[in-house]
Amino acid sequence: MSQLMGIIQRLKTLQEQDQSGDVPSRFFELNGIRVCQVKYFGTNDTFELEVYDKDQKPQKYPFDNIDMTAIEIYELLQEENNNQA
């Protein structure tokens, strides 16, 4: 399974989680370094992507499309991988 498909599967799992308690979220890491966190808001079917940067405060970005969210996470992971190389 490609990395992008794995990201999409994790996002779909967020959508399927019980919405009665806290907002479901997932961290995405590379080599033990947190790259971002995604929260899913079922009431309006949106994702919030919080991007971590060691030099700045985390930035938050809203997405209403699972594919665009997955692509952004994939690109962040690839960029972090290139920075570590």
Give a written overview of the molecule.
- It comes from Jeotgalibacillus salarius.
- The longest helix is centred in the last third of the chain and has 19 residues, at 66-84.
- The radius of gyration is 13 Å and the shape is globular.
- The protein contains two helices and four strands.
- The mean pLDDT is 92.
- It has one domain: 2-Layer Sandwich (Signal recognition particle alu RNA binding heterodimer, srp9/1).
- A four-stranded antiparallel sheet has the order 1-2-3-4.
- It has helices spanning 3-16, 66-84; strands at residues 25-30, 33-41, 46-53, 56-63.
- Helix 1 crosses helix 2.
- The chain is α+β, with helices and mostly antiparallel strands.
- The two termini are 23 Å apart.
- Unreliable stretches, pLDDT < 50, 5 or more residues? none
Q: Kindly, what is the distance between the CA atoms of the first and last residues, rounded to a whole number of angstroms?
A: 23 Å
Whole-number average pLDDT? 92
> Would you identify the CATH architecture?
2-Layer Sandwich
Largest beta sheet: strand ordering: 1-2-3-4
InterPro entries: YkuJ-like (IPR014904), YkuJ-like_sf (IPR038073)
Organism: Jeotgalibacillus salarius
Protein name: DUF1797 family protein
